[in-house]
Amino acid sequence: MGLLEDLQMEIERRTLPGGGWASGNGATAGIETTCYGLMALRHDQEPARGKAIAVLSRAQNPDGTWSAFEGDDREGCWTTALAFIALRFVTISPTRLDNSLGSILNMRGREGQWPWNWKFRTVDRHVQFDPDKYGWPWFSGTVSWVVPTAFAILALKQAACCRTESVFKRIRLGTEMLLDRACPTGGWNAGNGIVFSAGLSAHIDTTAIALLALTDDQKSVVRRALNWLRGASPRCSSCYSLAWTTLAFLLRDRPAAELSVARLCEILPEKLTTLSTDTLSLASIAIRASEDGRNPFKVN
Amino acid sequence: MNRRDLLLASAATTGAALTAYFRGRKFVRDVRPSRSRLAVLSADQYSEKLDQLVYDGIRLFDLDVRGKSVLLKPNLVEYIADKPVNTDTQLIGAAVEAFLRLGAASVTVAEGPGHHRDTELLLFQTALGDQLFHRRVRFVDLNRDELAKVKLQARYSGLGHLWLPRAVLTSDFIVSMPKVKTHHWTGVTLSMKNMFGIVPGCRYGWPKNVLHWAGIHESVLDICATVRPHFVIADAIVAMEGDGPLNGTARRLNKLVLSNDPVAADAICARALGVSPEQVAYLREGSLFLGRIDDHEIL
User: Fold this and answer.
1) Which of A157, B49, B63, B163 sits between 20 and 30 A of A42, alpha carbons compared?
2) Pairing of strands B69-74, B179-183
3) Separation of first and last alpha carbons in chain A
4) So what's the pLDDT on residue A116?
């Protein structure tokens, strides 16, 4: 049996009795992990797949958002965009996702609201960014960060049926935010490139996720990030980061993607039972996307 | 003023004082140890010699950890070559060994890095993964552990509750193992600020920005009031000063600080960095109910 099949079987084996997958060793389905798990399985891997969809359906809040895990307080957060991407990938009825799209549009980093915008413009300049360019927070009541912004942009770009002016505006603003907050040496850290006048170094996974959201962008910031990732990924030993790197390269640089997936396949086998379900799922998604082109983070 | 006026005035003054006291008091319990004890050990390098040094140091405190589950919470933030950002892995390994020798039923190392989502990569880059593998110790990524909703035992931040990892909540004995550093937002980051790492990223983000907006000092106090570390092993062999916690410069202090009191440990470490503990809001306020800035016994 091939590595991809081994991965998918291991993910299936870890399915919780109630469906979905826990982030760690627990018994509660995490929304992020369940989204990755769902995208990682083959269509014939029932009942794990069906149960994962059921978890996401029952965990959806009345306003269309998702919280962080099943049983969490009913407050929507960044996982809403990820659940949107995952459910769209497994072709659930689009009408069920309409609410989610509206919720994503309503969510914004605190710097996008005037009192805080003013604060970051005038009295709080330790973190150097343009507060007019805002994206999405991890959780409401906080500022924008790179990963939730990238996922929200992806979700909005994938919602081809709903390209209203407000959607375009948020995509544009979110994109500008990502471009504004890149690290001086290329790529992205968690949120800002410069803090207290010091440049931060980029993270591989964050950079890859941001690049997925900016696939159709050719600005110099994006090219620099791509070059940074090309330099950083060959030395990377983390399956989690390599999986994201592969997914990003597949949409921009096929030879780099092949190197990245080869390294992933070299490292994975010895860690199959010890890696987190998030990592196994992302590795599965990346390997399969490199084989058949089915990349859930691609904008059609 | 007659006697009746005097009585009324006294009653009013007492009432006002009591109201101010109870309105101002933001913690549930005074959990300061009956005796705050500190040990400052000399160590000039990170090597296997730390195994014996840490073991001997802990024994000074007569801790009873026999049969208990011990959780070590180091400071693992980001790998930056040549920057002393993280608690040294050799020291973490030494602490693991020491608690096992003292009869702990289990020792777990657990951390939820603040803004780095790839914990697997951090474990590799810092060599902590190797260290734990060789010592056969379990690592728990607190950013992705099973969670339980917990009522906070202080109300500085106004958050009321936090979802916290089961690995932390079910441990019998928690050891905060900070890297001694200055911090551009809070002045210093030591054993109390290190407890930020128990707050899970999967529920509060990377970084845990909810805590920043609720106030860093306030959140530190609420977290430590709820999950007060039982013991501290602070890595001050090579500390960081200047633009900490990431971009500061190395400063060799050649010390390990051990204590049963996180406020006492942080106070002495802050002074070593040239920061007055009274100037650090969470230490000043923490000295009312979590530990002592002064008045401790040096072992």
Assistant:
1) A157
2) unpaired
3) 32
4) 80
- For B131-163, write each residue's pLDDT tens digit: 999 999 999 999 999 999 999 999 999 999 999
| Residue B90 parent element (H or E) | helix B89-101
Q: Which of B80, B184, B213 sits opposite A201 (nearest CB)?
A: B80
Residue B132 is encoded by which pair of tokens?
Answer: 């734990």
Q: Give the residue from A244, A228, A254, A235 showing the smallest Cα distance to A281.
A: A244
**Beta-bridge mates of residue B259:** B38, B232
Angle, helix A31-40 to helix A277-292, in steps of 10 degrees = 30
pTM of the model: 0.93
A80 within 8 A of A107, measured Cβ to Cβ: yes
For residue B23, pLDDT over 60 is answered with: no
Please state whether the peptide bond connecting residue B245 to the residue before it is cis, i.e. omega within 30 degrees of 0: yes
Cis? peptide before B200, omega within 30° of 0: no
Distances (CA, A) of B83 to A164, B86, B242: 48, 8, 12
In angstroms, rounded to a whole number, what is the distance separating the alpha carbons of residues A58 and A45? 20
| Chain B positions in Cβ-Cβ contact with residue A68 (cut-off 8 Å) | 202-203
- Here the CATH number for the domain that contains residue A131 is 1.50.10.20
Residue B19 has pLDDT above 70, yes or no: no
Instruction: Give a yes or no: residue A203 inside a domain.
Output: yes
Q: Is residue A297, in this structure, part of any structural domain at all?
A: no
Q: Which residues of B touch A268 (CB under 8 A)?
A: none
pLDDT, mean over chain B: 93
Cβ atoms within 10 Å, residue A95: 7
A277 domain residue, yes or no: yes
Residues of chain B with Cβ-Cβ distance to A30 below 8 Å are 144, 202
pLDDT band per the 50, 70, 90 thresholds, residue B184 = confident
CA distance B53 to B57: 6
- Count structural domains, chain A: 1
Cβ neighbours of residue B287 under 8 Å, at least 6 residues apart? B263, B267, B293
Residue A300 lies in a domain: no
CB atoms within 10 A of CB A105: 17
* Residue of chain B whose alpha carbon sits nearest to that of A140: B210
Structural domain of residue A45, as residue ranges?
3-292
Prediction ipTM score: 0.94
Q: Which domains does chain B have, with CATH numbers?
A: 36-298 (3.40.50.11440)
Q: Are B269 and B211 in contact (CB under 8 A)?
A: no
Contact: A145, B146; criterion CB under 8 Å: no
pLDDT at B215 over 90: yes
Give just the sign of the alpha carbon dihedral A118, A188, A22, A41: positive
> What is the distance between the alpha carbons of residues B109 and B96, in angstroms, rounded to a whole number?
8
